[in-house]
């Protein structure tokens, strides 16, 4: 259950964070709290997304994964998992008079990379599971500040039944994942903190992220972020035919560098490093510690990403 579920969660969580995909049913999540810590240097301006209807971006996410598990107080020994490359397309469907942006995305064929020393059975298993991600699509409605208002996810009928369970359990959390911009005018050096409640597949979690505007030249920007997610006890749904597990706790830390343009709905490049530490009750009085690390890079494919006519 472990690697399969983690791979699916990481793929869809990264897509959600970077491209505003959405859950299995339309949701209208609670807006995150955005608090400006420092307005930065002059000149300052209000940061707002302003793509054109018809804009399309072809993107590719490459991920390196490692996983470790241990029982009791034993140290966690990490091992590398096969790498993953996930292509997907984001298209702007509409831009409303109030600035709200309707988008759609579609995942392409996932490539699983067999790195030296990787167990061939693990590679084959991940290929089988990831094959179901191809064709996953969705739509979302976000504000010009990047806050998700409504979203929906379409899952292919031929997807593995267990994978469908995992994706369905991610629904509401995915719908609430976004990159909120501050209401106030800010300049280079600005910092703002975003606090969100993220219902996950085992209960609920709180995410705190601090964003820093490193540079702003016209519509082009570079930001960095440091975030943490903490969750308490809950029941973890498992793949079909397996008993649910009880999670004791979860902690996740992440850092990212993002470069983009306010005239496009998805960033041009994002580099993310994150780690997840879970304590899971596998049977009465037996607790397993599971640590996952992911390094990912998302980048626009320039030759296939085109602005709408009139730019």
SSE map:
Layout: H1 2-19, E1 33-38, E2 56-71, E3 78-95, E4 101-107, E5 111-113, H2 120-130, E6 137-142, E7 148-154, H3 161-175, E8 191-200, E9 203-217, E10 220-231, E11 234-236, E12 245-261, E13 269-283, E14 286-300
Helix pairs in contact: 1-2, 1-3
Mean of all residue-level pLDDT scores: 78
3D shape: globular
Give the amount of beta strand, in percent: over 45%
**Helix tally?**
3
What percent of the residues sit in helical stretches (DSSP H or I)? 10-25%
N-to-C terminal Cα separation, in Å? 48 Å
CATH topology: Lipovitellin-phosvitin complex, beta-sheet shell regions
**Helix vs. strand class:** mainly beta
- In CATH, the architecture is Roll
What is the number of independent domains? 1
* Main beta sheet: 14 strands, antiparallel
What can you tell me about this protein's structure?
This protein is globular. Helix 1 packs across helix 2 (120-130) and helix 1 (2-19) packs parallel to helix 3 (161-175). The protein has a single domain, classed as Lipovitellin-phosvitin complex, beta-sheet shell regions. It is 14% helix and 48% strand. Strands 1, 2, 3, 4, 5, 6, 7, 8, 9, 10, 11, 12, 13 and 14 form a 14-stranded antiparallel sheet that branches. Mean pLDDT is 78; it is low at 1-6, 13-28 and 169-177. With 311 residues, it is mainly beta. The longest helix has 18 residues, at 2-19. Strand 9 (203-217) and strand 10 form a beta hairpin.
Summarize the structure.
With 311 residues, this protein is mainly beta. It has helices at residues 2-19, 120-130, 161-175, and strands spanning 33-38, 56-71, 78-95, 101-107, 111-113, 137-142, 148-154, 191-200, 203-217, 220-231, 234-236, 245-261, 269-283, 286-300.
């Amino acid at each position: 259950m472990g690697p399969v579920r983690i791979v699916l969660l990481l793929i869809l969580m990264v897509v959600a964070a970077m491209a505003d995909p959405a859950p299995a049913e339309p949701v209208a999540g609670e807006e995150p709290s955005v608090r400006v810590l420092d307005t930065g240097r002059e000149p300052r301006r209000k940061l707002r997304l302003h793509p054109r209807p018809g804009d399309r971006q072809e993107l590719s996410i490459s991920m390196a994964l490692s996983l470790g598990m241990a029982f009791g107080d034993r140290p966690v020994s990490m091992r590398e998992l096969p790498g993953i490359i996930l292509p997907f397309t984001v298209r702007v469907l509409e831009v409303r008079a109030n600035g709200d942006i309707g988008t759609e995305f579609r995942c392409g064929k996932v490539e699983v990379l067999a790195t030296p020393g990787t167990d061939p059975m693990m590679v084959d298993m991940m290929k089988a599971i990831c094959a179901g991600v191809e064709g996953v699509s969705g739509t979302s409605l976000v504000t010009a500040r990047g806050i998700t208002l409504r979203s929906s996810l379409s899952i292919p009928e031929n997807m593995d039944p267990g994978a469908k369970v995992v994706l369905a359990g991610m629904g509401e959390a995915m719908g609430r994942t976004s990159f909120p911009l501050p209401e106030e005018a800010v300049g280079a050096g600005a910092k703002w903190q975003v606090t969100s409640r993220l219902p996950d597949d085992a209960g609920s979690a709180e995410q705190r992220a601090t964003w820093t505007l490193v540079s702003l030249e016209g519509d082009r920007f570079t930001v960095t972020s440091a975030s943490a997610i903490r969750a308490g006890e809950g029941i973890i749904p498992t793949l079909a035919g397996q008993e649910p597990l009880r999670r004791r706790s979860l902690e996740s830390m992440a850092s990212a560098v993002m470069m983009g343009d306010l005239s496009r709905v998805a960033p041009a490049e994002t580099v993310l490093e994150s780690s997840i530490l879970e304590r899971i009750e596998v049977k009465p009085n037996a607790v397993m510690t599971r640590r996952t690390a992911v390094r990912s890079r998302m980048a626009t494919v320039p030759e296939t990403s085109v602005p709408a006519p009139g730019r």
